[in-house]
Amino acid sequence: MQRLFNKRILLGVTGSVAAYKSAELVRRLRDAGAEVRVVMTEGATEFVTPLTFQALSGHPVHRHLLDAETEAAMGHISLARWADTILVAPASANFLARLAQGRADDLLSAICLAGDVPLAVAPAMNQQMWVDAATQANARALQSRGVLMFGPAAGEQACGEVGPGRMQEPEQLVQQLDEIFESGSLSGRTVVITAGPTREAIDPVRFLSNHSSGKMGYAIAAAAVEAGAKVILISGPTALPVPERVELVQVVSAQQMRDAVMARLVSAEMLIATAAVADYRPVQSATKKLKKDNESLTLELTRNPDILAEAKRHHPQVFCVGFAAETEALVEHARTKLVAKGVEMIAANLVGPSAVEARGVFGNDENALHVVWAEGELSLPLASKARLARDLVALIAERYTNWRPERAPRGKVIKLR
């Protein structure tokens, strides 16, 4: 279940005796590395207490649409934007009917309407209620709108009858959720990704570096794996766990990163350069620790290699995507970098004081990007870095599909959606 690692799962629980299975579902999702938040309908609380789900998920359970504390921040919108996917398990016949009608008179249904992420339901009800024409019509309507139907299974039911209508077992639901995140859009491609900061030694104990955490690059590596790519992650020093099925190459300095990239682009189709590479390094690095013998210290610095520009120059057959962290004039600087480096795309984000309100600062778990290419641009709004990475990888895959190395870009600008 590697694809669920670090994913944000919003679990809706409705009024059904199968709600007891949802407690086990929360445990299995967390075992798979997912973060889970639970929303319960009033009917669900008649079968399982909110305290059970709070203890298992590690988060307070959400129940009320008009909560005085959460609604001040538009609670249903915040939860919908927080999630990477929404699963309603169990989904009662009543809930399916209300969802099909577009009702939003409780918190869970409002979240389902407000969400723009995959929505799945796991029906659970008496077998005759499931086969009833009204329920079947509701199920077809929901599926026609893209709602995923997980089950139901057939078998003996709590009422003693036998037939379809049982909620699928937690392990089956976890497996199906896992598969949601596999797109195959980069199947068979080799993608080199750089991430994290570099460190340029001043002496054996001091170095020049920056605030990059590497989180965005590691999230992109995981998203590229989900898209079917073979991923080579060239990383500066970070404290992050290595994504599953990723080949990790650890480096420290900009020169080491440059050498690692150039050696691996020979067999790659794509380079996504998210690393925050130090622009300068000391001309000389002391072999022994510098002592505080003087009131001041002068360091002579020299330029580091421009890894992205050099990679594109030597490997024009590689589709290259760069990153630009800017404190001002985001789009203008991104387009300047796009032309100067001769690459296919630049993903730019604000950092520093100008980005604090948008939470776009180094080390955060959320970010927003403005992506530019020769003939267009697109804004990817504030989201978790995991979700943002999937959106960016999908956009890159779409652009790559129609890209030809020998084809010069032409200057048509499209509107932001």
Mean pLDDT: 88
Give the CATH class of the largest domain.
Alpha Beta
Number of structurally distinct domains: 2
Global morphology: elongated
So, the CATH homologous superfamily of the largest domain?
CoaB-like
Describe the strand arrangement of the main beta sheet, using strand numbers.
12-11-8-13-16-17-18-19
Query: How many distinct beta strands?
Result: 19
- Gyration radius, in Å: 25 Å
CATH topology of the largest domain: Rossmann fold
Low-confidence runs of at least 5 consecutive residues: 407-417
Structural class designation: alpha/beta
**Alpha plus pi helix count:** 13
Strand percentage: 15-25%
What is the end-to-end distance?
33 Å
The CATH architecture of the largest domain can be given as 3-Layer(aba) Sandwich
Fraction of residues in H or I helices: 25-40%
How is the main sheet built?
8 strands, mixed
Descriptive terms for the model:
417 residues, alpha/beta, Rossmann fold, 8-stranded mixed beta sheet, 5-stranded parallel beta sheet, elongated, disordered C terminus
Can you give a write-up of this model?
With 417 residues, the chain is an alpha/beta fold. It folds into two domains: 2-180, Flavin prenyltransferase-like (Rossmann fold); 190-401, Rossmann fold (3-Layer(aba) Sandwich). The protein has helices at 19-31, 50-57, 75-82, 93-101, 107-114, 127-131, 133-144, 170-180, 215-226, 254-264, 307-314, 330-341, 385-401, and strands at residues 8-13, 35-40, 85-91, 119-123, 148-149, 153-156, 162-166, 190-195, 200-203, 206-208, 230-235, 246-250, 270-273, 280-282, 301-303, 319-326, 345-350, 366-373, 376-384. A hairpin with a 2-residue loop joins strand 9 and strand 10 (206-208). The radius of gyration is 25 Å and the shape is elongated. Mean pLDDT is 88; it is low at 407-417.
